[in-house]
Write a structure and sequence with these properties.
It is a single chain. By secondary structure, this protein is an all-alpha fold. It has helices at about 5-30, 35-45, 55-95, 100-120, 125-154. It is elongated, with a radius of gyration of 20 Å. The protein contains 5 helices and no strands. The longest helix is centred in the middle third of the chain and has 39 residues, at about 55-95. InterPro entries: DUF2127 (IPR021125). Pfam families: DUF2127 (PF09900).
Length: about 150
């Protein structure tokens, strides 16, 4: 598979990721916090997780409480992250030369933040996304070099 094809696949995936983050942020903005805590309470009180005083029930209620506390951050983060990714994908798909270094810097900043958050939250997903972003940064830089070579040759 050519680097160009890998690059197209990577930016398509990044675009889908950005769209999902934007939609997720908008959904979080619309869903009332009371609905999340109410759902968690309903699951626990109906013994759907076993013992209402058990570990799993406590974790669900704790997670719902953390969601309520961090909701504004999550909404702003998801919407901003989604919009930035969609803008970068649009520019890269149209081969806007100036967008390549910007994309590399922005995605590298996302990697640093994802690693920082993973260390503090012990998330298993964030290191995976950071590694995926590193691969995309490498592909963006390779595509940028090739684009510059092609333009000099033309």
């Amino acid at each position: 598979m050519s680097t160009e094809k890998l690059f197209r696949i990577a930016i398509t995936l990044k675009g889908l990721d950005g769209a999902l983050q934007l939609v997720g942020g908008l959904v979080l903005m619309i869903v009332p916090a009371s609905a999340v805590t109410g759902f968690a309470h309903a699951v626990v009180t109906r013994d759907l997780l076993g013992d209402p005083e058990g570990t799993l029930a406590r974790h669900l209620e704790l997670a719902a409480g953390h969601f309520v506390e961090g909701r504004t951050f999550a909404v702003v983060y998801l919407v901003a992250h989604g919009l930035i990714k969609l803008g970068l994908v649009w520019a890269l798909a149209r081969k806007v030369t100036r967008a390549y270094p910007v994309a590399a810097v922005v995605l590298s900043a996302f990697v640093v933040y994802e690693i920082f958050r993973a260390i503090h939250t012990h998330s298993l997903a964030l290191p995976f996304f950071a590694a995926l972003d590193v691969v995309i940064v490498v592909l963006v830089l390779r595509e940028y070099r090739q684009l510059k070579r092609d333009r000099v040759a033309a």
